[in-house]
């Protein structure tokens, strides 16, 4: 799951640089479908429960309030929080990571026809996250440009 998020974060950081736009387009052509296939394989497997699917999506598509609340929850969730700051450091800003998540969510929605029904249901439960994020000033202006 972290791999899919890191790929989106790297793609976003390339797209923000004037000399990186063409590299970002090539990366999209080469890796976007593969990244979504990886996430789809995790979500479509019959070996995990719906609760695990939702936890995985919560890890990928989490807002700042939930992130702070999650750090005070159970030990299992705390281990996810320990991993996430590494990806924040690898991007230029927290906003960059948030935009990378929006790009990943957009890719997942684009290829959602390949998801099984239980995975689609889990993704549907994260639509509120997308709407909340799109109303943030930095995200809204970046999406419009």
UniProtKB/TrEMBL annotation:
InterPro entries: DUF4487. Signal peptide: none annotated. It comes from the Eukaryota. It holds the Pfam family DUF4487. PANTHER family: HOLLIDAY JUNCTION RESOLVASE (PTHR36702). This is AT1G04650-like protein. It comes from Capsella grandiflora.
């Amino acid at each position: 799951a972290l791999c899919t998020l890191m790929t989106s974060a790297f793609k976003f950081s390339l797209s923000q640089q004037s000399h990186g736009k063409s590299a970002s387009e090539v990366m999209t052509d080469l890796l976007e479908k593969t990244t979504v296939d990886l996430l789809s394989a995790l979500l479509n497997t019959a070996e995990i429960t719906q609760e695990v699917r939702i936890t995985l999506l919560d890890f990928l598509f989490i807002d700042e309030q939930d992130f702070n609340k999650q750090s005070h929850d159970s030990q299992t969730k705390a281990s996810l929080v320990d991993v996430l700051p590494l990806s924040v450091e690898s991007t230029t800003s927290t906003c960059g990571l948030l935009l990378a998540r929006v790009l990943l969510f957009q890719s997942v929605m684009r290829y959602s026809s390949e998801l099984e029904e239980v995975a689609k249901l889990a993704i549907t439960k994260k639509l509120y996250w997308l709407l909340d994020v799109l109303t943030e000033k930095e995200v809204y202006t970046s999406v419009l440009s």
